[in-house]
Every structure is written in C-alpha cells, then in structure tokens.
Amino acid sequence: MNSVSDWTLWRSFAAVAEHGSLSGAARALGVSQPTIGRHIEALEVGLGAKLFERSLAGFAPTELGLRAYEPVRQAAQALAEAELYAAGSSAVLEGAVRITASVVMSHYTLPPMLRRLRDEFPDIALEVVPTDSPENLLMREADIAVRMFRPTQLDLVTRKVGESPIVACAHESYVATHGVPATLDELRAHELLGFDRSEVLISAARALGFSLKRSDFAIRCDSQSALWEMAKAGLGIGFAQKTIINRTPGMVALDLPLAIPPLEVWLTSHRELYGARRIRVVYDRLAEMLSVWLRA
Known about the structure:
12 strands, about 45% helix, five-stranded mixed sheet, alpha/beta, three-stranded antiparallel sheet
C-alpha cells in the first residue's frame, strides 16, 4: 500500500496537528512518541512536502498541513460513526460497556451499582472512566455517560434520572470540637475546605449572595474526592452531595441558609450505540438504580 494511503499515518498526523507535539499525540493515541515521529516522516516523504514546521515550541502545521487537517478530521469522524453503527447492531448480551462519570460519582456512587450490574450481567465487562471532563460519545470515548448537566449534543439518548442536593457538611468529630455554624457569618469563622485554583465555589457563593474569598478556605485542593476525604477526616466544613453524606458514617449535613441549586443527573448514550442490547440493558438498569439512589 502507498504510504500516503495508510490511515494509521493520517491518524497520527491529525493527533500531532491537534496537540502540537509528538508527545501529546502519542499520549492521545496510546502509542510511543518515536512511532508518531516515524508516521509523520513517512507521510512527508510520501507526499514530497512538509506537513509541519518543527521548533522548540512544538509542531506547527504548514500551509499544506492546515489544508489537509480538515478532511482528515472529517474522515476520522466518519469512521467513528461507522463504528457506532456496527456496535449498535449487536444484539448479543456480552462484550464491554464503557461508562464515564465524574470522579466523585465514580468513587462514591457507582461502585455498589456496578456490583449489581456484574451480578446480573456477568458476560458484560464494565470499563469505568472517572473524569470531570465531558467525554465525547460520538468518538467512542464512552458508551454511556453519567453527567451532572443536561447534554445538548445531537444524536444522543438522554434521560434525567433525578437531582442531587448540595449542602454544607462536616464530620461529627469536627462538629464535636468546633460546633455547628448557625449563620453564614459563623460559617466563615470555621475551618472551610475549598478549591485551590478553581473559582467554582466562590462564583457559586457570590451568585447566592454570600461573599467568599480564596483566603477563607483553610485547606485548598482542586480534587473533589480529596476534599471529601479531608471532610471525612474531620479537617473542616466542606460541600458535597447530600445523597453521599447520608450514606457516609460519621458525616453530618449542616442546616445553613444557603439555597444551593441541586445538581441534575442525566444518563446519556449515543442513539446508534443504544441500539446494542448490552448497552441498552446497562443504560436502563443504571437509570433505575440511580433514580432510587437519588430519591433516598
């Protein structure tokens, strides 16, 4: 086969164009950096032209590289759609189902549900992707997504499974030592757990009419699961989903005048993938279990 007709080479080209480096492309594709380098070199030799300008800052597409990128990107999407059609046609109740959810939900909500799924469907392997970044269902980064917002992407099967209230909380050992704040002014005087670089909590508090600064947090960390573990250790007052607080021994939900909007919980799959029986049964069963969990 002519090297310039080899899709593997063009896939590497697109990854380098998107990430700006061989190392970034290698991480994205799960191959070695030298392999990506050989692919780019083979393409340029086959074309008799340069696709990238190399510099210490990385790889910048040449004029030819820029013109080539869009049709290659469209081809990648077309191939992904073809895979979706093929996967969605399967009626066999076996294989793998890839589920993505937030880090907190993956750690503290899904595990008992995954156990039930394994008990009920032992021939279906479960792949779990904990991430707070939305995964692209069209590009097969996941088969099913549990999202804390309403999806807007086209060609998705979506179902709102409930809402999860967000409240202030602390471990009973912290409450026994420091007491319970009754007002927002008293809350500020406590040991607060919050984000380091992210301003999500500060912006949310401002929207509720509560002035909060980064310096008000005695302990700062951008990992939500780490902050939850710190709250469980009695380090201070944090904010968490009430459904998780209620199921965690020793954790106490605090009654404060903060009307924090609840998180909406949505279950999502690509319409073509949902046609595959193994994905449909996991999707439907997961929706049932999440609904029960959120109502408790």
